[in-house]
Amino acid sequence: MPEPSSNDHSNSNLYLRLQQSQLVRANIQNISQFLNTGLSPETLDICVKLLEAGVHPQSLSEAVIQIRNEMAALNNGQPGE
């Protein structure tokens, strides 16, 4: 029986990491829905990537809240603060 090449091993590792990533992503989305954050899957993905890149969690949450408040003000026809 032939030995698997290093490329096959690399591809299987990549596949396993992708599966794990999708599972983690689905769990994060479930938690977000349970907590009623109102974040879309795309927004959640962006937040996770920012956190992985080293953005401080409190700063990120404050930015999300500020953006939401400004969007609400725009939608209500009020100037943002």
Describe the structure.
74% of the residues lie in helices and 0% in strands. The chain has one domain. The radius of gyration is 19 Å and the shape is elongated. By secondary structure, the chain is mainly α. It is built from 3 helices and no strands.
Q: How does the major sheet shape up?
A: none
> What would you call the shape?
elongated
Indicate the proportion of strand residues.
under 5%
In N-to-C order, the SSE pattern is HHH
Low-confidence stretches: none
Beta strand count: 0
The end-to-end distance, rounded to whole angstroms, is 69 Å
Helix content bin: over 70%
Put simply, the count of helices is 3
- Rg for CA atoms: 19 Å
Total number of domains: 1
The SS-based structural class is: mainly alpha
What's the average pLDDT?
Answer: 85
Which characteristics define this entry?
mainly alpha, 81 residues
Mind sketching the topology for me?
Blueprint: H1 6-34, H2 41-52, H3 57-75
Organism: Anopheles dirus
Pfam family, one: MOZART1
Protein name: Mitotic-spindle organizing protein 1
Could you give a quick summary of the protein structure above?
The protein has helices at 6-34, 41-52, 57-75. The chain is mainly α.
